[in-house]
Specification:
flat; 17 helices; mainly alpha; 311 residues; 0% strand
């Protein structure tokens, strides 16, 4: 019996090792697929325009997107590939000099992105905290029905709410104003849902004890609830920043003036000019999101995990 038990344990150990090895290999392949475009973008931002044009000539020689696609299909069918190299033959910072010092339009649009994203994140945190506290700690009629309405709105495709938002913005005279982007972003149903999930884990007995000591709801939220939901607030701040930092559709529809649009819209046009500038602009554009992710990685992972457990 002892021998059989050992054989079973050994078999289970071998199976576990094979499973972990396959999972590790799969994750490594996934990491390579995700990181590859980022590395190519960063290395090409330090290349000269002539070097990039020579390397990407089979693709850049086409005149339109359809021609680009046809060119790629033809190359793949003939067994030809674009030979990308990782290290520039000659490292240059000319693209960074051009985009930061000779093209103020880039910095202007970068500021537009900041001017919209930061108020949205700050406002969404405030609204989500207040609404999440109400849905989790207060007892009032139609509470569950109202929260169900939030869930329905959250599950709706973005395109469904775009038209009502446009009608409201037009009625309020906010078309071509940053507030037509900021206000809908502040009142996000997802933020309320996330904070409500976190605050539900706060024991109601704590709130009851504080109320018996004479504390008001504002004091209870600041001194008891919020300190226990810091990871949730950090996760919400990171997710809201990345979501609205990358927005394209809303600015294209609500902002008619091109100089009021954020950098995310500008990047979709920049490829029409210098391809080297496009790589450099992409690197500078993704820096804030990457730095924020690295700074709040621990809180983001913890927040997402806890929200899943509590949901």
């Amino acid at each position: 019996m002892e021998l059989i038990r050992r054989l079973r344990e050994r078999k289970a150990s071998i199976g576990s090792t094979i499973y972990k090895s396959l999972l590790t290999l799969l994750l490594l392949m996934l990491v390579v697929v995700i990181v590859f475009p980022i590395v190519i973008t960063v290395t090409h931002s330090f290349m000269s325009p002539s070097e990039i044009k020579i390397e990407l000539a089979p693709i850049l020689g086409a005149k339109s997107d359809e021609e680009n696609a046809d060119s790629l299909v033809k190359m793949l069918s003939e067994g030809e590939y674009v030979r990308l190299h990782w290290v520039p033959f000659q490292v240059t910072l000319n693209a960074y000099y051009d985009i930061l010092l000779r093209q103020p339009q880039f910095l202007f649009l970068f500021w537009n992105s900041m001017k919209m994203t930061i108020p949205i994140v700050a406002g969404q945190l405030i609204v989500s905290l207040l609404a999440g506290y109400a849905f989790s700690q207060l007892r009032f009629r139609l509470r569950e029905s109202l929260f169900f309405a939030y869930i329905v709105v959250m599950l709706m495709p973005f395109q469904v709410t775009l038209v009502p938002n446009y009608i409201m913005a037009n009625w309020m005279g906010l078309i071509n104003s940053e507030w037509s982007i900021i206000l809908p972003g502040i009142f996000s149903a997802f933020g309320v849902f996330l904070m409500r999930q976190f605050m539900q884990a706060v024991p109601y007995s704590y709130v009851e004890a504080a109320r018996m000591d004479g504390a008001g709801h504002f004091t209870i939220m600041l001194t008891i609830v919020l300190p226990m939901c810091r990871s949730g607030m950090a996760a919400l701040a990171v997710l809201a920043f990345i979501d609205h930092w990358n927005m394209v559709e809303q600015p294209l529809i609500f902002l008619k003036d091109a100089m009021k649009q954020p950098l995310s819209v500008y990047l979709s046009y920049i490829n029409e000019g210098d391809i080297g500038i496009a790589f450099t602009a992409s690197v500078l554009y993704m820096l804030p999101a990457i730095l924020l992710m690295l700074y709040a990685e621990k809180e983001l992972v913890e927040g997402v995990q806890l929200s899943g457990i509590k949901g």
